[in-house]
Amino acid sequence: MDTLTLIGIAVALAMDAFAVALAAGLTLATVTYRHLFRFGFHFGLFQGMMPVLGWMAGVGLRHYMEAFSHWLAFVLLSLIGIKMLYDALTDDDEDAEPKDPTRGVSLVMLSIATSIDALAVGFSLALLGVSIWMPALVIGVTASVFTLGGMLLGQRIGTLWSSKVECAGGLLLIAIGLKILLENTLFK
What we know:
By secondary structure, this protein is mainly α. The chain has six helices and no strands. Helix content is about 85%, strand content about 0%.
């Protein structure tokens, strides 16, 4: 696989992570180095691991995963988006800091949801007979960089708007999940 193709794949896979990180940056009052590390590390790790898992699974499980992977991503992103909307709309204390999406179950669910496409890439690379280690590294590092950029941009936008941007973050996650679902069902 040539370098340009690999970079193109890595950037395409990192776009969902970027959008989710943007939404997370919008919801946090202040983005700290700790937030950046947790999100960047987990998104990069999951984006790098999923192609390896897909490659290892090979052709045998591909048919089964393709049938529902887009539904899984849609459900995970939508659940987190709905929870963010609920938290934003039911929060009576305007000065309270919004929930931290860079911790706990939310972090793991977001990491999985944004990296499911990378699993399919791993399957494809196995079919092509491509070694997985360099693509997995490039995909993981690219996702980390895009995640950091998305969080910082989201923080900047959130600071400028300083309104109930948690609603926008929740809606963005639901939209990303819906996009994944529609691309893999209606527009396939």
